[in-house]
Amino acid sequence: MENNQTTVTDFILMGFLVSPKMHMVLFGFFFLLYILTLLGNGVILGLICLDSRLHTPMYFFLSQLAIVDISYASNTVPQMLANLMDPAKSIPFAGCIMQTYLFMIFAHIECLLLVMMSYDRYVAICHPLSYTLMMNWKVCIAFAITSWACGSLLALVHVLLLLRLPFCGPREINHFCEILSVLKLACADIWLNKLIIFVDCVFIVVGPLCLVLVSYSHILHTILRIQSVKGGKKAFSTCSSHFCVVGLIFGIAIIMYMITNSRNFEKHQKFFSYFTASLILP
């Protein structure tokens, strides 16, 4: 039977449906957050590269996270800012798929790197005498390569499953191109895509989050056993900021991709997507 559906060649990114004056306010707000993200992560990278005292596993993973955060924000925020100046701005189909692919790559890598960083802190605090052996440079580089490779391959699986679907309209995407928003526009059954997303979340979000919580439970237990108050505070200070980032990133990921039955979910999803894309600091 002949297919009368029209193939979609581009999408319209809707952005925020507010007044033109409010668009300028939002443009300034997100532009400022984006600049802070670039400057903050850029300073971190510069200091780690220039100061030989920071050439340690902890700061190696932090530099990897900074690279991912810069790439993550740069993949979505410039397009977002352009849309705030022109609310009906379109994006080519290929460009939207590429943005989705890169978004998923960096999101996967970030989750995996956060696990690596929690393991590094676990070894440093709970097994300090074995730290140099357990976290040597070969191990650190292997962890980093594994994170980038797994993130890229898992994102590729999602994109290949996405490309098999027909798109025939409507063309409006609620915010920027990410997997759930693009799937809503498909003119076919997407049960397999949703199943893979759920399984992916279990292995990339829930699983790593459990590992992080186990690591920090051991860290907390060790810190409480430290008799020196100064030593306990120093150990806690090296983990507190990382734990806050873990809570922010994994919490938002669970809300966006695993809790989708809320009546106002689309509004919440837009807010979380714009916020995490604009302000990503390790």
What does this 3D model show about the protein?
This protein has 9 helices and 3 strands. 74% of the residues lie in helices and 3% in strands. A 3-stranded mixed β-sheet has the order 2-1-3. The chain has helices at 20-50, 57-85, 93-126, 131-134, 137-163, 179-183, 191-225, 229-257, 265-278, and strands spanning 10-13, 90-92, 172-173. It has a single domain (10-277), classed as Rhopdopsin 7-helix transmembrane proteins (Up-down Bundle). The termini are far apart.
Key descriptive features of the protein:
282 residues, mainly alpha, Rhopdopsin 7-helix transmembrane proteins, 3 strands, disordered N terminus
Report strand order across the widest sheet: 2-1-3
What is the CATH fold-level name? Answer: Rhopdopsin 7-helix transmembrane proteins
* Helix segment tally: 9
- Largest sheet composition: 3 strands, mixed
User: What is the beta-strand fraction?
Assistant: under 5%
User: How many domain modules?
Assistant: 1
Layout of helices and strands:
Elements: E1 10-13, H1 20-50, H2 57-85, E2 90-92, H3 93-126, H4 131-134, H5 137-163, E3 172-173, H6 179-183, H7 191-225, H8 229-257, H9 265-278
Parallel strand pairs: 1-3
Antiparallel strand pairs: 1-2
Helix pairs in contact: 1-2, 1-9, 2-3, 2-9, 3-5, 3-7, 3-8, 5-7, 7-8, 8-9
